[in-house]
Amino acid sequence: MSVELLNFIETVLNGLMSGIMYSLVALGFVLIFKASGVFNFAQGVFALFAALTLVGFQTGQVPFSHLINELFGTKFHHWYPEIHSFLAIFLTILTMIVLAWIIERLVLKHLVNQEPIILFMATIGLAFVLEGVGDLMWGSDVKVLDVGIPSGGSVWLENATIGLASEGSEYYGMYIDVLNVWATVIAVFLVTALAIFSQYTKTGRALRAVADDHQAALSVGISLRTIWVFVWAMSGFIAMVAGIMWGTESGVQFSLSLIALKALPVLILGGFTSIPGAIIGGLLIGVGEKLAEIYIGGLLDIGAIENWFAYFMALVFLLFRPQGLFGDKIIERV
Amino acid sequence: MIYKETGQYKSTYQSDHAIFPLMQDKVAFAILMIIAFFVVPFVVDSYWEKAILVPFLIYSMAAIGLNILTGYCGQVSLGTGGFMAVGAFSTYKLMTSFPDLNIMLIVIISGFLTALVGILFGLPSLRIKGFYLAVATLASQFFLVWLFNKVPWFYNYSDTGQITVSERTMFGIPVTGAEAPSYATYLFCLTLVVVFGFAAKNMIRSKIGRSWMAIRDMDIAAEIIGVPPLKTKLSAFAISSFYIGIAGSLYFAVYLGALEVTESFDIMAISFPVLFMIIIGGLGSMLGSFLGAAFIVLLPILLKNFMVDLVGLSAVTAKHFEITIWGLLMVIFLIVEPHGLARLWSIAKEKLRRWPFPY
Amino acid sequence: MRLKKLFMGMAVSVIAIGSFLEVATADLKFPMLVYRTGAYAPNGIPNADGFVDYYRMINARDGGIGGEKIVFPECETGYKTQVGVECYEKHKKGAMVFQPMSTGITYQLIPKATADGVTVYSTGYGRTSAKNGKVFKWIFNAPATYWDGASIAIRHILKQNLGNIRSKKIALVYHNSAYGKEPIRTLEVLAKKHGYKLMLLPVDHPGQEQKATWLKIRKSRPDYILMWGWGVMNSVAIKSAASIKFPMENFIGIWWSGSENDVLPAGAGANGYKALTFNAPGTDYQVHKDIKKYVHEKGNASGDGSHFGTVLYNRGLFQAMVQVEAANVAQKMHGTSKITAAMYRDGMENVNLDAKRMEELGFKNFSPPFKNTCENHGGSGLAAVQQWDAKAKKWNMITDYMYGDSEVVSKLIAEDSAKYAKEQKIALRCK
């Protein structure tokens, strides 16, 4: 095989991997939108908050220590040495469940039947609250997140592919980040679990019922509010997974919340209401933007086009299918 | 009692359709204008000008623009930052290419140029709706910012892409540049906002405004009764972008004076805040645009000064609280009054009709 | 309604207090535009802590500067230009000097501060051509500029290749903003001079996702990479470089891309990464002992004290020291301890930090000596290369302080400042 072809395959592979990372964020959006019709802009901050909480538990940081120290002149910082990641993850999941319950109680309950844009705004407000509370609780320093997921280039793949290039050409083997491979495994696992869950469990079926029709679901005795708490907790869990993946790559800090912007083109491409859409949309966007950046960008010597290119790609898809690839068809009546 | 409308009879359609049909409103508005034009310029200092009044006026302008598009025509847009960047860079290019052109003219031409760009990026709205459109407008946001950062022609081939305003005068008094006195920049912005505010109000009350609202309320029905969606939607994009372009032009020339596109027109710096303004203020309300802008510009400063100067918290803790409280207030407002501050105001007016007498 | 009025009254008075509170103080006011929140907080926090600790130490040890206490109100900008404007307007009354801590805010303040007569000191950042004191009366950027930095990095590469880099390919990975674009022109001119091939790779804010950039690097195999990064971009870039197995000793960052925050997340992979610096890391200096004694042991450390001795903390110390020294000089020049903003500017212009003075201040061998003059607001332009040792988790200085290519840089500065002077109609000083 020629080096060009191998490079192309490498780009596509890496695009797919980036796409999975976007999908992890987009999944949380889709879950909530499906069940409650809320476009939850706070999903990115959810990921940040979960990652902060995880690191906080892991290293035994005292929540609100900066604030307490400032107000009372004390010197609290840590209350126990490091604990095992699994315990920390478990505690974080509990926190996210409590958070979902609080959100339902204090926000969603009062905004039932509002217009979508109002709900959207409310989630932005929520994002600010979580950002502020996250900062107050854990401080805005950068934190190193390590739950034992390996990262770095895969040596195995590099060695396996180095011989593929045709004789005499210079080739160094293919590159792929192990962390992303893990992300793929976890995403596949998550989606399978979600599918099984919604097909074969009672709660899962209730969830689908709510997604289909709120009123019909209510009339057969499904508690909307329980389902909402459940869905928000679940997307909190997905946010944690996304937070772990992104946080391992870059450290946990405010910028983590901006990954929401990366998930938006994925959402409009895949459709707001489709879980497979989030995955396939992510893959398409990932591959598309990497190819554009390296080939179009490289050709015309214009860099950093991937951000807007992702949106443009989604826009072009939309012109043909205004509800996204897998979104529910919009039926309009007068 | 004070807000009594009894006894104010209208005998012509003209008086019935006046912008302020009530005497009290007319008087209140006149007083406000007198204060704004004849009192404030004499007392304004540079802190009030640069930190509060000028940003308030500029954001009001942008909010009016977005309200036309989102509040009246129902097309949600997150591309405000990109369109403001068009206004700012048109101003810069016009200023450097035509050193003798009057600044007022430059600002208005910038508005027209932005309108053209707005029409172009409004085209997808003919097919895409709702949140899909909102996210699609982000394409214009990211693309425009990238363009102004990438193509050196826009920033006259300077090394860093920073653009700096040069001094321009109105009636011999500088209104742009660092030497411009506070009252001059303030009056310059105020005049534009008042003139174009009235223009917008009248547009909304005329045929074009009614067709926007028809499209917003139900586009298929509007089409059936003969409102052309293409023309209506694009005209909303054009006029909205015109306002936003003027806001961007003032933002650069009068308010900041020097800026760099990636940071100053970031989606978090402009697009989202302006959308908050019209939602907190009230979708589809002129008054709402102003109230929303005031709320968004003033509240952080208020919270900050309160917590740092009066309570004595450290700057960073105060900032964390500020973000939290800010988000909380937003949620509370939406829960209490989803129709915004403008609606609260009209409820207050209702109450004032019989206050202080019991029901 | 009464409640509403009360609220309105309160609101107005709070804003009013905000704008007038600052008049009363007679001390030396050094307002700080910090960012301990937002995307760049991890860099902003240690830097601000360095400032605060140094000011507190001076107040505790010497009772201020010449008997005048330093006040240093913090104003949180979150690295946002608009908030920076508000902070500047709020604190400019009676302020001696502003340290904007962001290239965007610096550009913003250059015309304003010049009109208001307030000194702006952008230590090794901001507008490079502000080095030319003939045009920029109130702006200082000592001890080194980005263009010095770019040419020093090239000089370092030249040295390693015995002066011949004709066949080399050098990539610049930069933050896609005014800050990141600063070195491009210099590197292009130098590319013509030395014959290397330059590759430009912009990374958009915030820089969380750089896969495409590093795939490009992996494909085109540059011999050296220079980086102008900030915030999360640095650590992601260093981690990516390590994971594509780029030889880290050929990866050189500017002084803002060489702090502990940037290399620690990459773990062992970051070993060998190089960065420029104009101040030494570590805690073995007299000033650190004084801070320990007068500030930390009294329990007055800024933040949690955990950044003591890190690169950005030490840079904060250096920046604060220069600002304090300028006040010292101004007091001596004008024979009064109650200096004005204009006197302070004179002080800054005549700062002469030679080795002896540095030692007196407790900064022996901490950074190269420099002095400002009427023409030169940019100091010596000296910087050294430091290298990260991942095992010991510390930075080691591996070269002496060296000059950049002053011939090329000064020509570029003259061009750029002349253009600015023409645009803004500024008459030249220092004749």
Q: Roughly what is the average pLDDT of chain C, rounded to an integer?
A: 86
Portion of residues in beta strands of chain A equals under 5%
Overall CATH architecture of the largest domain in chain C: 3-Layer(aba) Sandwich
What is the level 1 CATH name of the largest domain in chain C?
Answer: Alpha Beta
Q: What's the main sheet of chain A like? A: none
Strand-pairing-aware structural class of chain C? alpha/beta
Describe the oligomeric state of these chains in a short phrase: heterotrimer
Please, could you describe this protein's structure?
The complex is a heterotrimer of chains A (334), B (359) and C (431). Chain A has 334 residues and is mainly α. Helices cover 69% and strands 0% of the residues of chain A. Chain B has one domain (47-352): ABC transporter involved in vitamin B12 uptake, BtuC. In chain B, strands 1-4 form a two-stranded antiparallel ribbon. Chain B has a two-stranded antiparallel sheet with strand order 2-3. In chain B, a hairpin with a 2-residue loop joins strand 2 (169-170) and strand 3 (173-174). Chain C has two domains: 25-144 and 282-380, Response regulator (Rossmann fold), CATH 3.40.50.2300; 146-277 and 384-409, 3-Layer(aba) Sandwich (Rossmann fold). Chain C has helices at residues 2-20, 41-61, 81-91, 103-116, 146-160, 178-181, 184-194, 211-220, 232-243, 260-263, 286-296, 311-334, 341-349, 355-360, 406-424, and strands at residues 28-29, 32-34, 70-71, 74-76, 97-98, 119-121, 139-140, 169-175, 197-203, 224-228, 251-253, 274-277, 352-353, 370-371, 384-389, 394-397. The model of chain C is unreliable at 16-25 (pLDDT under 50). The interface between A and B is large, with 53 and 46 residues.
